[in-house]
Each structure stands twice: as structure tokens, then as C-alpha cells.
Known about the structure:
Helix content is 33%, strand content 31%. The chain contains three helices and six strands, in the order βββαββααβ.
Amino acid sequence: MASVEMHWRGNMLFYSRTPSGHDVFMDSSPEVGGSDSAARPMEHFILALAGCTGMDVVSILSKMKLLKKVKSFDVKIEYERAKMHPKVYTWIKVLYIFEVEKEIPHDKIKRAVKLSQDRYCSASAMLKKAVENFGYEVIIEEAP
């Protein structure tokens, strides 16, 4: 069994050292007792989705020997949260935005994204079970 600890540092500030040895802070806005010194917990949550699927796609494209033909790659997540507590995510769309060399096969990029979404990304798998409206889109632009 794994575990993680979160330590209260006063007001709404919390600190944790991750199992991989990295420091993480979380805070809230002054309106609810925080000092706005760190990201909010739900911001970490949505960033975890972006990082999880983004790393999958990079790994898959690398194995396909296509990563060197990718000039830039961004993961943008559009989302909505419930207005009432608990303010869960009600709608999520993951946008995969690529700038690539002209000779790269677009279908292979789309396959890498699909593999992340359907097989590898743990964060996507968890959120798909909880968020009724969860989707993604691949945007590919060719570099001049």
C-alpha cells in the first residue's frame, strides 16, 4: 500500500513531499482564508490530467520515431465546474495542439493521442468515470 502526507502550514497553506521526492504546496485565495501563495488543489488535479496524457503522447511519438519531427506540442484543457459544492468537473475537453514538419503522418499523431486516452493515461481513465462530458480534439498545424 502506498501513502502520501499533506502537512498544514497555517491559514490554508498545505505542503507535501511527493513519493518521488518533490515539494508541492497548495493554498487558497484570501477570500477563503488563504494567501494565494500556491496553486489550488483542483488546479493540481486538472494539471495532472494534462501532464499525464502529455507525457504519454511524447513517449508514444518517441517510440514511433516521430518526436524529432514535432516542432511544438501543447496540451490545453478546457473545463467547467459545478456551481454548487462539491464543485466537481462537469465538462472537460483536452486539446492536443501540435506544430509538425510537413512529412509527418497526421494519422500517427492521432493514434498516439488515442492510445493515451484509451489505454495509458490513468488520469483520463479516472476522470472519464466521473465526468459525464469528457472529450478530446487533436489539432495539427504544419510548420512553414
